User: Fold this.
Amino acid sequence: MDILYSAIIIDDIEFCIEILQKLLLNYKNITVVDCATTVNEAQKLIKIHQPDLVFLDVELNDKNGLDLYRNIQDSIDWSMQVILYSSHNEFLEEGFHISVFDYLKKPVTKENLDIVIQHFLKERKKKKLESDKSFNPLKKIKIKVLTATSILHLNIEDIVYFEYDNCDDKRIWYVYSTKLKKYTLFPKLYTNDILNFSPEFIKIDSTHIINYSYMFEIENCRYISMKVFDNIICKLPVSRRYYKKLTSRSK
Assistant:
């Protein structure tokens, strides 16, 4: 079964959005989840949907598309590829300087779009193969954390959950251990980096990742109880978005 990838189109011209949407219907494994015509709207939708793919027009009415991407880059903690699309080639070099994935020339044609989409799908397939090869359930993975005086290495089974702190732009992940101690994850990692450590690590909302091995129960579809050595040590919120994934795994 093919993996389904989500996409968002950002363009201030509705007609261009409609053309691109229609062309993307030819790809069963890519679905357009939303569209935006302004930078403010785009920022909100990207945060809500966390898409795999973003088609970003450079010249928007209220702001430059490249500036939009610069401003949100540090907050993207999932795997998202940005494809610039514009009628002007002079933005190409600047776009690659800020790590855009690819470039699509306007007006968009079926042939040019197919080249870009195949590039995207090939890259995703390559990453998945690399991830599958690197995963070894028998291998002891060590996760670095900071203590007051040194760096400590924790095993997967030593960790109950992770908590993200975005206050004052800290953008730090904290680790809570089975010994009820709180550590700072080191070095700074993205959400996907943590999830790739182990299939037991599961995201339950925007700020928490749990070790599924210590999940005891879900209360009222809203809270997860974490249990260590027969003791309930905490209750964490679970969002609607991740609740379904969690319950499907529990079955």
Summary: The first strand starts at residue 5 and ends at 10. The chain has a mean pLDDT of 85.
